[in-house]
Amino acid sequence: MKIGFTTGTAILALATGLGSVAHAADGELRVVYRDSSFVTAVMESAEEAFESAHPGIDVVLESISASSRDYYTKVSLMNQSDSTAPDVIYEDGFYVTADAAAGYLEPLDDRLAEWDDWSKFVDIAKQNGTSFVDGKLYAIPLGTDTQAIWYNKNVLTEAGLPADWQPESWQDILDAAAQIKENVPDAIPLNLYVTKAGGEASTMRGLMNLLSGTPGALPATLYDPADGKWVTGSKGMADTLSFLKTVYEAGYLASDNELQDGNFQHVLVEQRAPSDEVGMFIDGSWIWSRWAETGSAPWEDWTDVIGMAKIPTQDGGGNGFTSMSGGWTIAMTTYADDKDAAFDFLTTVADHTRSLQYSVLSGAVGVREDVNTDPAFLDANPTAGFFSSLVEVTNFRPALEIYPQVSSLIQETMEAVTVGGASVQDAMERYDSQLTRLAGRSNVKAAE
């Protein structure tokens, strides 16, 4: 049975107890999710399969139409009371740590250890359902994304670069950008989001894709989960900021006006790339869907024109390549009366059938090895094989409660060394000082 909520008023009424409904009546399992056509299709498929296997239990699907952030706010309000909390929630992996720390989510480690299918999940993808605080698993990942360098073959070949270009280090990226600037002056050589206008795209896609490729990766340069401390004064952070300053000052990036335009992300992908006006841009695995027939900017020939390259580590060391990931999960709340039934619903949503359906319909990278090799998945997404291969080298953000503030500080620091003209040393000193203030001195350590 599906119930849709499309207004904040309805959700607030639920969350505050005004006209509220019990979180799970006998024989009912309440499932809350963020509304979209593909999530609804997966949930309805799981509902049918679950109810067939569990006679007497009625799955109540409740969809919420909202942005990711508003959805999280509304679900958090629901979870503040036993009378309004659902049994199962569709959870952005970015919020798992905070919700687990708040006591909203039930740990799943023991149950997952007994679920045969759990061994079929890509190990690194499991991080998206794991708390950064206690290391326990609180959610099952449904799909993820990875990042790469998208490039225009027409621009690269005109610049004298190969159509199957693959950089092996940051220097290779700099060299390619220099060739594009010299030989194709009408094209932006390289796009990176480097200002506050880019928001989280600047933090994750502009900086962390590079930072994660420095020695020690994110634990040595940003946040070390081993001792729960944020890192200051790291060489990796300084080198990453120096790279951003270099590409900016060399004129490889877009204009200042474009870099400070929050809408430029859409202009770049939907207008500049199809018009051969950008050489390379680091972005997420979902970008191709905008060029699909049903996308926001259909582009029939994109598979002939656009190539994809892995993001190299700084000097080719470590795994050689790197990426960043996010993605959505399915979780059980601590309020679920019948936790066995709730867990069975989680595994129904995350089984091979529904995981395949989720990845095909959403364009997400699969988190199950048997999905990533399934012909149905590979045939539906022309980039599937490439982006799935990056899951092995990907990284996840330290999704702690103060992360949004740290992310904002990172954006300010990136903007300072680029359009702001600040030195890397000055920007680093301010970053370290502000990070210490945000996290508290006891939660910060100097890089080794």
Describe this structure in words.
With 448 residues, the chain is α/β, with parallel strands linked by helices. The protein has 2 domains: 2-145 and 326-381, Periplasmic binding protein-like II (D-Maltodextrin-Binding Protein, domain 2, 3-Layer(aba) Sandwich); 147-324 and 400-446, Periplasmic binding protein-like II (D-Maltodextrin-Binding Protein, domain 2, 3-Layer(aba) Sandwich), CATH 3.40.190.10. It is 42% helix and 16% strand. The chain has 21 helices and 16 strands. The protein has helices at residues 8-16, 37-53, 68-78, 96-101, 109-113, 153-158, 170-183, 200-211, 217-221, 235-249, 256-259, 264-272, 288-291, 302-305, 339-349, 352-362, 369-372, 375-380, 384-389, 403-417, 424-439; strands spanning 2-5, 28-34, 58-64, 88-92, 139-141, 147-152, 188-191, 223-224, 229-232, 278-284, 306-309, 311-312, 321-325, 328-332, 394-396, 444-446. A 6-stranded mixed β-sheet has the order 1-3-2-4-14-5, with helices on both faces. It is globular, with a radius of gyration of 22 Å. 51% of the residues are buried.
